[in-house]
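Example complex used in Figure S2.
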Amino acid sequence: MKIEGQMNNRVLSVILEGRLDTDAAPLLEEFLTENLPGAESVELDFSGVDYISSAGLRVMVWLSRHTGISKGFIRIRNMKSSVKGIFELTGISDMVVVE
Amino acid sequence: MEIPVKELVTAASVDNLETVTEFVDEQLEAADCPMNIQLQVELAVEEIFVNIASYAYAPGTGNATVRVGVSGEPATAEITFMDSGVQYDPLAKDDPDVNLPASERDIGGLGIFLTKKNMDEVAYEYRDGMNVFTMKKILTEQR
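Predicted assembly (242 residues):
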């Protein structure tokens, strides 16, 4: 998975490309751990993600916990319908703002 | 559509996840499986194989056997995972409460939940010292 991010006005924007699976999940968690300090919110661009497994979902749960329970903190953009379906099925969609 | 059963035996290690998903994908592609259904099957394959790789033999190592075949009308894939690790029924656990907020969510249990939701049938059996997990998926669009 390719992960690229930048911080603008305390918003950490991250563009993801590839499969958010067992292999990629630890990379994303590591990237966020390194880059979150100083961020007031996170925007994840999912336009290049066509697959997510429970390992990827666990990163989303971890991120919501890590950042307190303020739902507005995590925003996900351009989610494909297959991935969105998994978010809804598991209730993870309630922990983030889906745009 | 009939794809004879093929078998892969591999070390039950997360490093082999790609080998396993590629093996299953090959059979599904041979059966002209639609992409969205293939992704649902892949998800279940990842969840089950990663479970075996993480827990069946820990802290030791061992093999996992994966069998895939397609038969019937409508074409249905049957995928079986076998390991001779510690006896474990993944279906015995209750589904996670998907309405709980993040702070109260049990971070486990999502994988098997997704497997159940994405496959048409799942079954577990402990047979001859082996964990045998079988799942079925109809390979045509429903409705």
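Chain B has a mean pLDDT of 93. Chain B has three helices and five strands.
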